[in-house]
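Predict the 3D structure for this chain.
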Amino acid sequence: MQLLITTSHSLLLLDLNSGVTRPLHRGAGLYYGITATPRHYLVAARRRMVSSSEPAASEQGEILVFDRYLRHVDTWHAPFPLRDMHEIIWHRRHLWITCSFDNMLAVRKPDGSWQRWYPLGEPTAEPRDQNHFNSLRCSGNRLWLLAHNRGASEILHFSLDTRQLLARDALGEQAHNIWRHANQWCTCSSAEEALLGSKGFYVLTGGFPRGIARLPGGWAVGVSARAERSRRDLSDGHVLLFNRRWQERQQLPLVGEGLVLDLLPVAAGLGGYFYRSPFYRWLCL
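Done. Predicted structure below.
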């Protein structure tokens, strides 16, 4: 297996056997969310760094499109600003993008049109980033959205058909990522330097955990160094590898890459076969 990794500076391909990384794309500012479609990989690029002197309000992010051989083949732009993009997912031929700056989700529809959705209503005052929506998950006609809240975080449950808020559950501190494991919701409780579950799951990672990938033999977690905002793009991060029992197996350094933002597994040398494999379908559940 290999991992696609987004960092402050790059979209990287990490070989899990050798620990060697290869940059696939640079120069588009900070890279964040990664998701796979049946034919492509999609990557969120902000066109701006965290440490940039340019105001965040002027950010104009874009979606980079890579083919199954990880060649950059297209770039998608929305008719409105994509600001402070975090996690992205592909579900039912729609691309869902968390845009934290505007407390918004951007949605790209199958016909290529775009839509803005404000899950808790459009903010009427500055700052617009009231909940810092940064992660999401879809299954069937349900969407789960993580509100970081710059403190005590929560998972918001929505109906995709009506976009009605169904429930909200507290989980984590300054949290990132949501996934199901051992019959519970889990998150990277980044402020607590740990992975946390709603029914007692707990794994200490150290650093600032963010970005997780399920692997055939276990899990991979991205860990960023704690640093002042102006220094975050200059720091060193790493990837922690765990076995199925959440015992740490290895630490793979990412020197000079700044923040580690998102992870997505890819099958080495399989090309398009990966998308038809049972493992890919399992990842999308």
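The longest helix spans residues 278-283.
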